[in-house]
Amino acid sequence: MAMAMVAPLYTWLLAAACSYGASSCENRSGSASPMGRRARRRLQRMGGAGSTLICSKQSYTSMLPDVASFCGSSLQGLSSCLSFEACPEYYSSKQSPLFGEGIFGLGLGSRPVRAARRQPKVAGAGKALAIAIQPVREKTEKKKLITKPRRVVVTGMGVVSSLGHDADSFYSSLLAGRSGVSVIESFDCSEFPTRIAGEIKGFSTDGWVAPKFSRRMDKFMLYLLTAGKKALEDGGMSADVMGDLDKSKCGILIGSALGGMKVFNDAIEALRVSYRKMNPFCVPFATTNMGSAMLAMDLGWMGPNYSISTACATSNFCILSAANHILRGEADVMLSGGSDSAIIPIGLGGFIACRSLSQRNNAPHKASRPWDVDRDGFVMGEGAGVLLLEELEHAKDRGATIYAEFLGGSFTCDAYHMTEPHPEGISLCIENALAQAGVRKEDVNYVNAHATSTRAGDLQEYKALMKVFGQNPELKVNSTKSMIGHLLGAAGAVEAVATVQAIRTGWIHPTINVDNPEKEIDMNIIVGAQKERLDIKVALSNSFGFGGHNSSILFSPYVESNDN
């Protein structure tokens, strides 16, 4: 307490005293400025004449003995914790030290004060002497903790598709070369030029979504919730395991290209009658973020939660972003992927207006034919795919089965055309992904291509792959869309599931309907009508979307010996 009282007083006294001495440092003749006299009078009123401070061969009365006695040992302690810096003249003075015996030694000076002649005022006289009183700060070096880099692994998968509603049945159908494309049955499309799609039939939410929500939610949200919970089940996230999770480090990032189109379309139809007929949930259930939000509410997960919408590249954007949350330590567990359901009149009609869809209505199973000369557009699909991504040590601690390791990826923008790909955009994205993941070109021997069965897109992607990987004799490329159609925002996630399954099983699925390949296509690289055995080193999965959005992500087998 004494120290706290003395420090401000002592600082003021020094400033007042040095105000007098400043003129002595500037004017060697020994004049006393008016400011100096006022300061001295203030000191005298506080207790009379006292000690002597010396600067530039001039002495003057500065401190009171009573002040020194008042401060006592507190001033003695003050000298050890404060740093004093005097004016340069002090260091060349032959007089006794300023703070040696004069104040802190309580030897209050031995030389008398002489009367000084009045001299003309010197510029700068009366200004306070530059004595800094600052606490001495100890410099401490912060030691950086050396930690192992965080790694991301896949420990669970969930799928809802036209070829199956779990990862194993879905991939078994792909390996068998089955097509999930059929005639649309959910509405009357007899007046449309395209009447086929990869439509999901016989889907049920029983046991996955509460009935009160299943009656009101859009299909894209029902697919999302079901696939997300199936990924947890597949990943061994039992009730006991879920109870032990740090919910603040568990997040959900599942996107959608088009969101709740059916809910919104129904609201427009209701509005034609009256706004009172509109579903009160029409706005929240139409937004793309609400699926992730509803799943988080169900699970109680409080980590990163949002959605990304980048057209048909949505899922890859979500998967890479979710993995980055884990790498940065913001999450330990992330559900990521995509979901879409646009096989409704407005969705079908919209893509027909874009002249994007195949019209091979008489042979639905042959409509999606990537790299084939006779392709006439893509086939719409619907569904959801979700990966359970987990930090490696977290997965090992709970004894999870690790399906594959996520190595990294990249996304870029062509800034070129609304629907046409840039000639160099795809190769730039792939090369960026390899650089970000630290993967050599020759190590990538499997590519799950975007390959939608469009005239321009298929060839542009193939040329980009040859530019980057053309020297790799082991390279194999296939297209999942040849069997399930284009799932729009969910395409990348469903194809990521197929990619991880290829790593797990050692089998890569066929690409059906490539009966008459383009002349630029090397069928030794494209996986044809039969599945093939392949020991995958690194797998690449591409997704591209309207607006020039490109994305590439990389997976590899998890090898425990590479932990260090």
UniProtKB/TrEMBL annotation:
GO terms for cellular component: chloroplast; mitochondrion. Its EC number is 2.3.1.41. Pfam families: ketoacyl-synt (PF00109), Ketoacyl-synt_C (PF02801). InterPro entries: 3-oxoacyl-ACP_synth-2, Beta-ketoacyl_synthase, Ketoacyl_synth_AS, Ketoacyl_synth_C, Ketoacyl_synth_N, PKS_Beta-ketoAc_synthase_dom, Thiolase-like. It is found in: Plastid, Chloroplast. GO terms for molecular function: 3-oxoacyl-[acyl-carrier-protein] synthase activity. Keywords: Acyltransferase, Chloroplast, Fatty acid biosynthesis, Fatty acid metabolism, Lipid biosynthesis, Lipid metabolism, Plastid, Signal, Transferase, Transit peptide. Residues 149-557 form the Ketosynthase family 3 (KS3) domain. The keyword Transferase applies. One of its GO terms (biological process) is fatty acid biosynthetic process. The keyword Signal applies. Residues 1-24 form the signal peptide. It is an enzyme of class 2 (transferase). It catalyses: a fatty acyl-[ACP] + malonyl-[ACP] + H(+) = a 3-oxoacyl-[ACP] + holo-[ACP] + CO2. Homodimer. Belongs to the thiolase-like superfamily. Beta-ketoacyl-ACP synthases family. Catalyzes the condensation reaction of fatty acid synthesis by the addition to an acyl acceptor of two carbons from malonyl-ACP. This is 3-oxoacyl-[acyl-carrier-protein] synthase I, chloroplastic. It comes from Ceratopteris richardii (Triangle waterfern).
